[in-house]
Write a structure and sequence with these properties.
Number of helices: 16
Distance between the termini: 28 Å
Number of strands: 2
Radius of gyration: 24 Å
Strand order of the largest sheet: 1-2
Largest sheet: 2 strands, antiparallel
């Protein structure tokens, strides 16, 4: 692992650690605000919960404790709002990094993240807490800029291996972050602070820990991260003919007429491939994030599991995912290829969804078998988490390696605006975030309207369709094996 890769990995660990700390606290935070603001029926939280309850009642009427379902739904809605903000801001952050530099824009987003944590620390109303989430959603740029930085300093041949570190950071932090957040949630602020009379959020200690981690990350980036824009590894083609410049006609001029060069055709192919990958990214995360979100409904509804048991299930997915990324994906990607690796992950998810489709019919009479099917589905989803997004991201970043040499001047031709790494990868990430924003809402509506079996069966069919589409994509010529060779 090179110096820049180490810096990026450590900064991601700090960033995602801070991001995952509040995840298990969302329902409890909403309950705390509900108790504080229940006396005001016209307040923002009361009106929001009323809207959630009315919407939920259209498709589902729980037999007991409907308020608990509404709180869980609102927590999911808050996650969708965060993803929607990421969908909006990601392309803009990427474009700014192309213009002003990765490091400068990354540090700017870090300031926004720290501000978000400070607002959470002091938020004593639901409105101010939502403000902190909005600031955080508009400021979160670490992951996409980390991908752009790694794409700058790696070649297409070792790109996927470097980007696997992003997935490993995700898996590790999603394992340790939520338990630590839950632990510090029970810790009060020091009496010397509370004695001042200043009121803080009920979970001020996790909020303060988040701010400390983000501050350490910012200082670390200032000191250790170099600027990488324009310093990416470039491989100059061996012959002019590789760039389609075998004669004057190939340069686009023949008898006064302008013709499309082979390089232009290659650029068009790359742009089209990026659009295809964005579409696949959106559809995959739309289905996958919906399935992830309904798992807690499934275990609560069919098995009556508590938070500890749900946490163990989710934690096991994270552990298996981390082991697969470190022990299998990084080693096999060079042989398998990004597209085929993504297809394997999508197929694994489809198999897991078949298990979840069968599971509800076995709970009543074969509970042990049903639990084994749930565990098998979790293992399949861990394989999916370890492979698909990272492989698709690496596949998309390879399309941005737009390096060609002008046959007349011998200089590197300026990259196409649509293939600038920051902008292109920002759009790619944006498409996935839109899927994350929409998927859980559609999955919940389907779960409550048609039941779990039909919901997971439809999702399995969708995943098999995506796997088939991914097969056709991998059969196309890419930047490494297409017209640019």
């Amino acid at each position: 692992m090179g110096k820049v890769e180490r810096v990026v990995f450590l900064s991601l660990v700090l960033d995602l650690f801070a991001f995952t700390i509040p995840l298990p606290l969302f329902p409890r935070i909403i309950e705390w605000y509900t108790k504080r603001e229940s006396s005001d029926p016209n307040g923002f939280l009361s009106r929001t919960l009323s809207l959630v309850s009315s919407t939920r009642a259209l498709v589902y009427q729980p037999t007991s404790n409907p308020q608990r379902w509404d709180v869980v739904l609102l927590g999911g809605l808050m996650g969708s709002v965060f993803s929607a903000l990421q969908w909006f801001i990601s392309p803009r952050i990427g474009a700014l990094s192309d213009k002003y530099g990765r490091k400068r824009v990354l540090l700017l987003t870090m300031i926004g993240n720290i501000l978000s944590g400070l607002v959470w620390l002091k938020s004593t109303t639901f409105v101010t807490y939502m403000l902190s989430r909005i600031i955080g959603g508009l400021s979160e740029g670490n992951v996409q800029l980390a991908i752009a930085i790694l794409s700058d300093v790696t070649t297409p041949q070792n790109r996927a291996k470097a980007l696997a570190h992003v997935g490993i950071a995700f898996a590790v932090c999603f394992i340790i972050g939520p338990p630590i957040g839950a632990y510090f949630a029970s810790r009060p602020l020091p009496q010397s602070i509370t004695a001042s009379g200043i009121e803080f959020n009920v979970y001020a200690v996790p909020a303060a820990l988040t701010v400390v981690l983000l501050t350490i990350e910012t200082i670390f980036l200032v000191v250790a991260l170099p600027e990488t824009r324009g310093k990416h590894a470039q491989s100059v083609p061996k012959t002019a003919s590789a760039n389609g410049t075998t004669n004057g006609t190939a340069n686009g001029k023949a008898n006064g007429a302008t013709h499309q060069t082979s390089r232009q055709a290659t650029v068009a192919d790359r742009i089209q491939m990026l659009k295809t990958l964005q579409h696949l990214h959106f559809l995959f995360l739309g289905v996958f994030s919906g399935v992830e979100f309904t798992l807690t409904f499934l275990t609560f509804d069919l098995f009556d599991w508590n938070n500890k048991e749900n946490g163990a299930l989710i934690g096991s997915i994270g552990i298996i995912s981390a082991l697969l990324q470190g022990g299998y994906v990084r080693r096999a990607l060079a042989k398998v290829g990004e597209g085929n690796m993504a297809r394997r992950g999508i197929s694994s998810c489809a198999i897991g969804l078949i298990f979840l489709t069968i599971l509800p019919h076995l709970v009543a009479n074969h509970r042990t078998i049903a639990i084994r099917l749930l565990q098998a589905a979790a293992a399949c989803m861990a394989m999916t988490s370890a492979t698909v997004v990272n492989s698709l991201t690496a596949y998309a970043s390879i399309q941005c390696d737009d390096v060609s040499v002008d046959s007349d001047t011998g200089k590197v031709v300026e990259e196409h605006p649509e293939l600038a790494k920051g902008k292109a990868l920002g759009k790619f990430r944006s498409s996935g975030q839109l899927g994350r924003a929409i998927g859980p809402l559609l999955a919940c509506a389907s779960y409550w309207t048609f039941g779990p079996s039909l919901t997971y069966a439809i999702s399995a069919v969708a995943m098999f369709a995506l796997s088939s589409k991914m097969k056709s994509v991998t059969n196309r010529r890419t930047v490494l094996s297409g017209k640019s060779e």
